[in-house]
Amino acid sequence: MEEYLEKLKSEFPAHELNYYQSNIEGELINRIQVDDFDAVIINPGAFTHYSYAIADCLKNIQKPKVEVHISNIYKREEFRQKSVTAACTDAVLSGFGMDGYRLAVLSL
Question: What are the structural domains of the chain?
Answer without folding.
Answer: 2-107 (3.40.50.9100)
